[in-house]
Amino acid sequence: MVNLEQITEFKTSPELVEKLYENSISKSYPAGSVIVNEHAHIRAIPIVVKGMLKVIRTEEDGREILLYYIKAGESCIMSFLGGLHNETSKVKAEVEEDAEILFLPVEKVSLFIKEYPEWLDYIFRLYHKRFEELLDILNAIAFKKVDERLLSLLNKKVSITGSKSIQITHEQLANELGTARVVVSRLLKQLEENGMVKLGRNKIILV
Q1: Is the dihedral of CA 36, 41, 42, 43 positive or negative?
Q2: Secondary structure (3-state) at 44
Q3: What is the pLDDT of residues 142-177, one digit of tens each?
Q4: Are the C-beta atoms of 19 and 112 separated by less than 8 Å?
Q5: 180 phi and psi, to 5 degrees?
Q6: Which among 98, 83, 94 is positioned nearest to 27, based on CA atoms?
Q7: CB 203 within 8 A of CB 167
Q8: Which of 200, 195, 173 is nearest to 96 (CA)?
Q9: How many domains does the chain have?
């Protein structure tokens, strides 16, 4: 079992880790589970202990776009902001890899900010990281072609998982990029012809 104190973000804060476990509820989820939906009221803040989540924004026409990933030791800054201001969620959080998650009640978030400076530092560091990731998304949409964004997303998945074999469908990739499946399929075929990827059934291998 993975413990928070084994994760870099919390190694210097054993007392904070103890309080997080004391005040949180631990739950396990298989890949594909949705733990937060758009417009849902935020009662607790998720902290990933094991596995990975992806945070997605959905438009009214059903199109989706991937905003960022949440890895072990991280949380969702959108949940922090929504919970602290008593607002509903603006995003959907879905389990990318089987995950173990601690749920810290919203009322404890403000209390921890007052009692533990390292908790506030943790929130600020998360905010900074997510802000930079969202800027990258905006820059990619505004200035990069879809093929560049696709290759960048595949490389990011490899970097996060540590595996060059990615289990994903063309439809899922299209949703994360906010484009059509036929576009992704065509671009992947081009990448395969150029020797950059190998395509299998619901699987992409970066060469």
Answers
A1: negative
A2: strand
A3: 788 888 899 988 998 888 888 899 889 998 888 888
A4: yes
A5: -90, 150
A6: 98
A7: yes
A8: 173
A9: 2
